Amino acid sequence: NAGVTQTPKFQVLKTGQSMTLQCAQDMNHEYMSWYRQDPGMGLRLIHYSVGAGITDQGEVPNGYNVSRSTTEDFPLRLLSAAPSQTSVYFCASSHRDQEDTQYFGPGTRLTVL
Amino acid sequence: AQKVTQAQTEISVVEKEDVTLDCVYETRDTTYYLFWYKQPPSGELVFLIRRNSFDEQNEISGRYSWNFQKSTSSFNFTITASQVVDSAVYFCALSERGSGAGSYQLTFGKGTKLSVIP
User: Fold this and answer.
1) Percent of chain A as helix, strand, coil, to the nearest 5
2) Under a CB-based contact definition with an 8 Å cutoff, are residues B37 and B91 in contact?
3) Minimal Cα–Cα distance from A71 to chain B, Å?
4) Can you name the residues that pair with A44 across neighbouring β-strands?
5) Low-confidence residues in chain A, pLDDT < 50
6) Who among B35, B43, B105 is closest to A88 (CB)?
7) Which of A7, A53, A65, B11 is least surrounded, with the fewest CB atoms within 10 Å of its CB?
8) How far apart are the C-alpha atoms of A13 and A71, rounded to whole Å?
9) 3-class SS at A65?
10) Do residue A100 and residue B33 have CB atoms under 8 angstroms apart?
11) Taking CB atoms and an 8 Å cutoff, what residues of chain B touch A106?
12) Tell me, what's the pLDDT at B31?
């Protein structure tokens, strides 16, 4: 198993550009989440999904869109990037039988100029 | 509301010293889970331990040990005989059930940066 994979690993955007951060897992986990990590802030939840076709907002959802068309994939979209979205983004997944335990991807470091 | 406090922002120790990382949490739930994650300089998050609210037994894994005390809402992490490879940011996290399935969401502390000096 590859576990949770994220692409790209690094990305630089200009203000106003759009992009999609990819997240995939091959563990057949029902639940997936996106977090952002900022210096001195720990990780904060952006959006999460409990299954294909079902998503919900977390603590800091503004400026981000998500969709879940398959169990394996959970992309995070930035429609119009802003410097405040410069951060490290982590995707995580968990199985419904142990939904409290999340497995994290390696992260994507995003810089918005 | 959940809250996790890691009061120590940065700690420096000399190699082979013992070090304890503090974690205090707040929750109204009786069922919850506590975690510790390690984030080395390479940036990935490494799962260290999961503890549920009904199991107050302390745990030891090699040089790592965890002290869970519900009476003080603390879940402290001790590294014995620290090594340079232990240098990392350590996060404590709390998870409690929300309103429905899949609603276990982690609330992280702000992390403690541990530097082990050779």
Assistant:
1) 5, 50, 40
2) yes
3) 14
4) A36
5) none
6) B43
7) A53
8) 28
9) strand
10) yes
11) 43-44
12) 86
